[in-house]
Write a structure and sequence with these properties.
This protein is an alpha+beta fold and 170 residues long. The chain is 30% helix and 14% strand. The strands form 4 sheets. The protein has a two-stranded antiparallel sheet with strand order 1-2. Strands 3-4 form a two-stranded parallel ribbon. Helix 1 packs across helix 2 (53-60) and helix 1 (33-44) crosses helix 3 (65-75). It is globular.
């Protein structure tokens, strides 16, 4: 069953009470405002690029990786869920093959799987695939739009900062 809430197609039925599946309802719940904002960010990520759960939370200036992950788990089917990823570049457990199909269709940069990798699945090449929310310039995470809410340039570009008198890579 698929239904529309605020113009988004959502899988159903969803739990209305805190995402607990023991209270499934066919009623159309109101999409929480935070969830709407998370899904809006996911839709802005260009094909072939990704943002981490933490990147999305930082972009919004609210919540954290776990809150974004929860939104994606409950409502992510209404957006390009494969573009919001783990920071280590591992494919979403249980959805690896579907995600891999999307990544290949969109030419998302991938790293070859090591022989020790479970199932020999590749990972995302986070240096090349990560998007900072700026204008697309084809240079990885370095594109900057100057918009308020952009992920800080130092973090997105992997720059160095001063820590206790020495430089530390962030």
């Amino acid at each position: 069953m698929v239904r529309a809430v605020k113009g988004r197609l959502l899988p159903g039925p969803l739990s209305v009470a805190y995402g607990r599946m023991d209270r499934v309802s066919d009623e159309l719940p109101e999409l929480p405002e935070y969830a709407e904002r998370v899904l809006d960010v996911a839709e802005q990520i260009p094909p072939g690029r990704v943002m981490t759960y933490g990147d999305v939370a930082e972009w919004l200036g609210e919540g954290g990786p776990r809150q974004v992950g929860r939104v994606m788990a409950l409502y992510g089917a209404a957006a390009p869920w494969w573009r919001v990823v783990r920071a280590d570049g591992a494919l979403l457990p249980g959805h690896e093959l579907r995600a891999l199909g999307h990544y290949r269709d969109e030419a998302t940069p991938l790293r070859e799987a090591s022989r020790a990798a479970e199932g020999h699945l590749p990972r995302l090449d986070m240096r090349r695939a990560r998007w900072d929310g700026g204008a697309e310039d084809g240079e990885g995470a370095g594109g900057r739009s100057g918009r308020a809410g952009d992920i800080p340039a130092a973090r997105a570009a992997g720059a160095e900062r001063e820590v206790g008198g020495g430089a530390a890579h962030i």
